Amino acid sequence: MIIAVDGPTASGKGTLARALAAHYGLPCLDTGLLYRAVGAHCAALGGDPDREEEALRGSTFPEALLDDPALRTEAAGALASRVSRHPAVRQALLDRQRAFAAQPGGAILDGRDIGTVIVPHADAKLFVTGSLEARAGRRHAEMVARGVDVTLAAITADLAERDARDAGRAAAPLVRAEDAVLLDTSNLGIDAAVREAIALVDAQLERHTIL
Ligand code: C5P
Description:
The chain is an alpha/beta fold. It has one domain (2-202): Rossmann fold, CATH 3.40.50. The chain is 54% helix and 11% strand. It contains nine helices and five strands, in the order E-H-E-H-H-H-H-E-H-E-H-H-E-H. It has helices at residues 13-24, 31-44, 52-57, 74-83, 87-101, 114-118, 132-145, 152-168, 190-210; strands at 2-6, 28-30, 107-111, 124-129, 181-184. A five-stranded parallel sheet has the order 2-3-1-4-5, sandwiched between helices. Helix 1 (13-24) packs across helix 9 and helix 2 packs across helix 4. It is globular. The two termini are 16 Å apart. It binds cytidine-5'-monophosphate. Cytidine-5'-monophosphate is lined by residues 9, 31-32, 35-36, 77, 80-81, 84, 111-113, 162, 166.
């Protein structure tokens, strides 16, 4: 069973993907982390994330980099969003993501193009979204709790910029797959969002077994 979870930054898709993984007993891949590693490695090599060839060099990142907490920062997210625009970078990460999805028993992957490009044949697809205000408010609260000194206005501007870049790029833009079910988390707490996500996935799986 393969479950695709896509959506914009800070929509809660990562949290939901992990909760679904625990619920269905499936392994989970945060594909954003791969792009973050490419961006960080590109920068470590002194490359320009806006130049395709230099960004591509970042895709040879060492595996240990995936455990680096620095990848979770906003700065790493912004770099990821810049390297991820390049088709060569997306291609370099394709096999790894498809192999993860194809493992026996299935998997959950979360990202931007899982249901559209990586595994269009997924058994269930969620497109998790939320208003810019709700997403920025959530991200701001998380960062303040971690002791980061940042304003809500700065976070809102950063998310809006990343949304525009992710949705506006030519290669695998952030779009909802036609057969993905929308889950708007703007007014949902974590527990309610998880319950809703499980119900939506169950409904899709049931429909598959009936058809
Ligand atoms: O999900 P996360 O915020 O970690 O993703 C970081 C960036 O990586 C996104 O803004 C997006 O540009 C890129 N990304 C992507 N395709 C994916 C996952 C992430 O382009 N499947």
